[in-house]
Design a protein that fits this description.
Layout: E1 7-16, E2 19-29, E3 34-38, H1 45-52, E4 60-65, E5 68-69, E6 72-75, E7 78-81, H2 84-91, E8 94-97, H3 109-119, H4 125-138, H5 154-166, E9 172-176, H6 184-200, E10 204-208, H7 212-218, E11 221-226, E12 229-234, H8 236-241, H9 246-255
Parallel strand pairs: 3-10, 3-11, 8-9, 9-10
Antiparallel strand pairs: 1-2, 1-4, 4-5, 6-7, 11-12
Adenosine-5'-diphosphate binds near residues 21, 39, 42, 46 and 47.
Length: about 260
Amino acid sequence: MNDMPMVRFENVSKRYGPLTVLDNLNLDIGRGEKVSIIGPSGSGKTTVLRMLMTLEAINDGVLWVDGEPMTHMMQNGKLVPATTKHIRRIRAKIGMVFQSFNLFPHMTAMGNCIEAPITVLGMKRSEAEERAAELLNMVGLSAKKDHYPSQLSGGQQQRVAIARALAMRPKIMLFDEVTSALDPELVGEVLQVIRKIGREHDLTMLMVTHQMGFAKEFSDRVCFFYQGKICEQGAPAEIFGNPKNERTRQFLNAVL
Ligand code: ADP
């Protein structure tokens, strides 16, 4: 099982009516690998994350996570559509942070971080609080643990959202344009936290980002999406320094 990548999109397609958003996608993400997805608006980047989070059903193909099919399950040696219970078990391995922070507004930073560990994982409150305190410390927010989201800046809220996702002990973290809604001066503190997680945790990380400098410095691999396909992928130095594909060049010229 450990020979399998942490994530595998196998011939995955996604359509909305007549619109093909992902076209026969094949993508493997290795254990502990950090992958950035870049590309023009509407190229299907967010859909990739939403399908992994099972917020969207796929139309064709199979999605594998940690060596097991997620969208399907094995029955008598055949892949059949997965039950909700199966999907939920596999999805528990994945944490996601969104562009909009999505914190529970009526709970403190600490409350946000202990809610799911207690209700979903059945953790004891004291244990959940201990773990949450460690995570809030890691994201630099120990002093704000009793603050409500409305009392925090956007950057601080996003850091709580990251701590909250990590509190569920995921193996895979998805980041969807997590700095896009932030004022420019708050972007750095959130990227700093993501960098730290990358260094200190053996997590597989997949991010959609418009921060090209960050993608270049942080990722093991960069995938450039265009019209629902991976148009070009490779090490950041190759993609940013010597893109082979004309579309990649055009995109980078426009954004850099
Ligand atoms: P990106 O993240 O690269 O900007 P998305 O994955 O969000 O692109 O979207 C890809 C395409 O799918 C876009 O054309 C978008 O309009 C379309 N799309 C996304 N979600 C839906 C939906 N729920 N219904 C119909 N079309 C959608």
